[in-house]
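Annotated sample (chain length 179).
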Amino acid sequence: MRYPQGGGLTPERQVFVSGSGWRPPGIFAAGACNAEVAKDWRVSVGSVYRWRRAWQDAGAEGLRSAGPVSTPKLSETLFAALEAELAKGAVAHGWPDQTWTLARLKTLIGRRFHKSFTLSGISLMLRRHGWSHQVPSRCAAERDEAVIAGWVKETWPRAQAPRRRWTPTSSSQTRPASR
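Output written by the structure step:
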């Protein structure tokens, strides 16, 4: 399962799972086979093996959730520092324009925080913190609508492949000439 918090269980869910709402300790004590437990809980048999082993080693406490497997690469304070860097703009960091791309963000994070991210990891991190991609609201200053309209009228029809004329066809899957 995926959680919007980035993984792990919420504190309420941890209480539910570790409390009376979660039954595998009782099921294991009753002697149910792993396949039955897996079918009832809609999980793999391998998960039930791990649960049973943890229950045998540490009892009901062994089945308690330990929370998320990993911590975020950028803590909340580091992400706040990243937002401050983003507010300065891309030009302040040496790029020729004010566009922030994922590749530029990867470079900035590497330079500033000495951390390595994939581009998709950066995108997910930004979305988790409420950022979204932006589309320019204006057209380029060099755009000439008259030239574009002339190109669409004159050049584009010549570049397009000619349309095929409709002709009646045979419904046979074999070629008519092969009969």
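Annotation: Confidence is low (pLDDT under 50) at residues 1-7.
Annotation: The longest helix spans residues 145-159.
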